[in-house]
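== Sequence and structure of one protein ==
=== Format: two labelled lines per protein ===
==== Data for this protein ====
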Amino acid sequence: MEKLRAAITGIQGYVPDYILSNTELEKMVDTTDEWITSRTGIKERHILKGPGQATSDMGKIIVEKLLEKTGTKSEEVELLICCTVTGDMVFPDTANTICDKVGIRNAWGFDINAACSGFLYGLTTGAKFIESGMHRKVIVVGADMMSSIIDYQDRATCIIFGDGGGAVLLEPNNEGYGIIDSAFHGDGSGRAYLHMKAGGSLKPPSLETVTNKEHYVFQDGKPVFKAAVNGMVESIKEVLQRNQLEKSSIDWLVPHQANIRIINSVADFLEMDPSKVMINIQRYGNTTSGTLPLCLWDWEKQLKKGDKIFLSAFGGGFTWGTTYLKWAY
């Protein structure tokens, strides 16, 4: 019998209805559709509109549809992990808010904040609860309402980010499918290049921080770009070597959707057939914790049982890593 692993047995995604196109952004900041497309690959992004809307509202929709799709009862869910940088509140955690809104009463939950690497971190964390035998049904949500922390007068960031997310159901598998291995790394000095200045204990909210627009994402693109390519490539190498795999054995590459040039650089290293690289950045932009599950959701019908899939991400902090899994259905 194969080692007990945690396998993805269902995937669901969601993006809000409202679409913010490059053409509309041309009216808001000094930019053009050609400039955005050539530098990022993004044509449009989805934005959550309406009073009182938050990340948990997207999470509610995602989880309800996932439960329906997989035939899972809410009382069967034992743990829900929400990966996000845009939680509804500083506390309580958004995971338990989602559980409350969905009607999941027998589960506990917590949030993971690892920026764009969040879903990968959450996926491996959730898998460990399955592998240990502690739980049999774990949901991992990756969702962000990035529009809530973006300055739409800042051309460096407002063109990049969108709202949306996805979730997976993890269940035990002893047939050799599921999450096989992960390599994660972090470098806290990277916070200088990608962060939100205020809102935490270092700089609590004040009239001054609001006036100075310090509750928005700050990004210094060049060092982030370089670190992202190096980090994703090196972590992929690490997983390949540890599992004695050749690059050619990878069936699908699922890269974080931050920038088309980063994606292409990583794909070039792997010498991947472009048709085997999941890219949807043109439609969604960077949804932070949401990009990887949105890719899996978009490509679900093309995946075959046993496919070797590499998911790789890089996030602010810096955080980065790669997960190797075999598709289970």
The two ends are 19 Å apart (CA to CA). The longest strand covers residues 163-173. The CA atoms of residues 139 and 169 lie 5 Å apart.
